[in-house]
Batch of 3 targets.
Target 1
Amino acid sequence: MNADDFNAETETIVANLHRQGLEYGPDGELVDVVTPWAMGAEPFAAKSKPMADLSAKLAQTMFGNDPRKGVCAVCGKPVTAFRDETSRREYGISGLCQECQDAIFE
């Protein structure tokens, strides 16, 4: 199997796991994930409309990313899943993806 085939197969496996609500954790173990869409997550949802707009504008100005387009406020990667309800709620406050939350809070 060449590298391209291996990468394609790996992407397929990971996509299938996500559809089942699973992903590989930092230690290689399978963990349950909570997808933003299933949880009704929205960046800055915990804020009033004017504050949400201001937060989005700040993220856009500081990092060049608009979380309302489904990307992390800091790293700009697509927001796909959260480890737990607390992480999903944090996304509603900060617009941070799981990876950025882990880097900042752990």
Note: The two ends are 38 Å apart (CA to CA).
Target 2
Amino acid sequence: MTNVENRLNSLTNDFKGYSYSAAAAMGIAASSLPFDPNKQKQVAVAVGSVSGQSALAIGLAINRNKVQYQAKIITGNKMTGAGAGANWSW
């Protein structure tokens, strides 16, 4: 029974490492989207990679009345995420 438990623990640890690396790659991709505050409408694409796991992020930004609205979709290794935000400038 010890061999089965050891193998199960090993698989669980591998899965956790895979998930953390994929999530980190998604974060890197999302944070790498470049947006220019001087442009009214823009689309950006970025990629990220951690420990062999990679992700792709696509974002859209719209500037109106000194407020920038952003929306992002991130996907990588059977995981998907999204984000939205706004920032003000003066």
Note: The helical segments are 2-31.
Target 3
Amino acid sequence: MRSTQGVDVEPELVVSAHAERRAQQRGVSMDALLLAARYGDRSRGKAGVVIRSGTQRAVQRMVRQGVPASDADRARGVVLVVAEDSQPPTVITVRPKWDWRVS
């Protein structure tokens, strides 16, 4: 992942400056963002974007695939808006973290 400032963390994903700001404001670590991007449940949004969500099912999938449970739990509730049609895919924004266990 790399930010628009050129920080290279994962080569197949770009995180926009806006998404970095929102993640910081909303208490979402870059590790949690990466896990949500990689394992999050996928749904179609408006204007061709993809929504990646750190749902309970996604967290269970992470753990089954070898992600430590404590790391996977940090991705719970993280929601990303991703432009997958751009090359490489770009995280546009990070939605407010929502605690799935509360409702």
Note: Residues 1-9 have pLDDT under 50 and may be disordered.
